[in-house]
Design goal:
14% of the residues lie in helices and 39% in strands. The chain has 71 residues and is mainly beta. A hairpin with a 2-residue loop joins β2 and β3. The longest helix is centred in the N-terminal third of the chain and has 10 residues.
Length: 71
């Protein structure tokens, strides 16, 4: 049994909700996930994702559980 994931833990792309993965694929085509973190406030989770594009430039985006960019 895998340990449960807590707030502030580092996530792998395949551990992110499907809506978040789909949004990254659609909106940030060609980028890969370097790191992903989860935080929660008022029962809603936010996903802070560090992306690396094909030119090796990093970009950080924050998405909600529906895959919507919120910051």
């Amino acid at each position: 049994v895998a340990p449960s994931r807590g707030l502030g833990d580092v996530y792998k792309r395949q551990e992110l909700p499907q809506a978040v993965q789909d949004a990254i694929t659609k909106s940030y085509e060609g980028s890969t996930v370097k790191e992903a973190y989860v935080a929660g406030a008022d029962g809603a989770k936010k996903y802070k994702v560090v992306l690396v594009d094909k030119d090796q430039k990093e970009q950080t985006v924050v998405l909600n559980e529906k895959g919507e960019v919120i910051e």
